Amino acid sequence: MVTVEVENCSNQETPTPNCNYVSNIKQNGHSIEPMKQIPGYLSIYAVFQIIGIFLILSVFLWLQIYRTGFGFSGTIHICNWHPLLMTITFIYLFANSILHFRNFRNTTKRKLKMQHATIHSCIVIFGVLGIWTGLNSNLIANPPIPKFYSLHSWLGIITVIMFLSQFTSGFISFLYPEIGMRYKKVMMPYHVIFGILTFVLSIITSVLGFSEKIIFALNHQYEHMPTEGLFLNFVGIVLIVYGVLVMYILIKPEYKRSSKPDDGVTNNRT
């Protein structure tokens, strides 16, 4: 049974924002503050989603129009899956995952953790497929293309290792019931910090990957600023803006989710 107590609002016909802020919902003996309408958050969240979808569509159109499209035979067609899948997983889904606690602040912490882990599981599945397409296209090329020699590939390996470490440690620390609460509280700051670092590294790796791809594809034509080169340069800039926007939402105190009595793991704002 849920009861609502409102202070200093009985004489007002229309609830005001201040009345919403002082409203308390009592559920199961706990006083739970309802979700506040944070000024400007819905607008910036809409911009965040629009830019993310724009990046995916831009990469798809670039590969479809300029790079002969997608397929499961032929070096180019297989390789084209790599930038698209990595953009969807390590950029868009990753960004939505780390902002998930802010976007659905009224949901219980346990449900948010399960949804957070589910999104990360999708990143692992489709990310592995994206990595496989990149490696396989190098192997079937004639002659075979060398692997793991560029800065993009080195940073990519580091990013994947960091992500898998985050995924494994987070799953064990926050979803495994036998882990003590004290250990979870100790692990939380490190989980957050390394998650942010992994996302930043994925942005850097993607920008380097786009630059490497377009230089190899256009060769000396790139210096004459063809349409494809200018378009992908613009996509790279939008990608950086997207990363900055995600960081802004993460560090802005007003956008953080307030702790609830039933959160359990964290007693601060996340």
TrEMBL record:
Subcellular location: Membrane
Example GO molecular function: oxidoreductase activity
Gene3D superfamilies: 1.20.120.1770
InterPro entries reported for this sequence: CYB561/CYBRD1-like, Cyt_b561/ferric_Rdtase_TM
Main location: membrane
Pfam families linked to this entry: Cytochrom_B561
Lineage: superkingdom: Eukaryota
Cofactor(s) named in the record: heme b
KW Ligase (keyword) present: no
Membrane topology reported for the UniProt record: Multi-pass membrane protein
Name recorded for this polypeptide: Cytochrome b561 domain-containing protein
